[in-house]
């Protein structure tokens, strides 16, 4: 399944986030489909990952919860949704 992960943080946390990112290594077993990207002027970033078990994402997001909050949203390609939900 694919997931959109949205990270939210305050401007004061940016320096620590950047420093920690330099040392970060992925722990969860997931495929990164879209790399970490910033939302200009919003103190948020997002990435898209694919995995069989959402717990794999929590292995990485839990390391950051002292600096950021996370929203993890299941997503699907429109073509797949059209097959599953005819009225889409």
Structure description:
The chain is an alpha+beta fold. The protein has a domain at 1-15 and 51-88. It has three helices and four strands, in the order E-H-E-E-H-E-H. A four-stranded antiparallel sheet has the order 2-3-1-4, with no helix packed on it. The longest helix has 10 residues, at 14-23. The two termini are 19 Å apart. The model has no long low-confidence stretch (mean pLDDT 94).
The major sheet is characterized as: 4 strands, antiparallel
Number of strand elements: 4
Binned strand content:
25-35%
Q: How much is the average pLDDT?
A: 94
- Structural class estimated from helices and strands: alpha+beta
Question: How do you describe this structure in short?
Answer:
This protein has helices at residues 14-23, 55-61, 78-84, and strands at 2-8, 31-39, 44-50, 69-75. The chain is of the alpha+beta class and 88 residues long.
Topology:
Blueprint: E1 2-8, H1 14-23, E2 31-39, E3 44-50, H2 55-61, E4 69-75, H3 78-84
Antiparallel strand pairs: 1-3, 1-4, 2-3
Name its key features.
88 residues; alpha+beta; four-stranded antiparallel β-sheet; 4 strands
């Amino acid at each position: 399944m694919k997931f959109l992960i949205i990270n939210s943080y305050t401007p004061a946390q940016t320096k620590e986030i950047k420093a920690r990112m330099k040392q970060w290594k992925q722990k969860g077993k997931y495929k990164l489909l879209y790399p970490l990207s910033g939302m200009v002027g919003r103190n948020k970033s997002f990435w898209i990952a694919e995995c069989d078990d959402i717990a794999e994402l929590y292995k990485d997001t839990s390391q950051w919860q002292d600096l950021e909050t996370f929203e993890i949203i299941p997503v699907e390609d429109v073509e797949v949704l059209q097959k599953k939900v005819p009225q889409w």
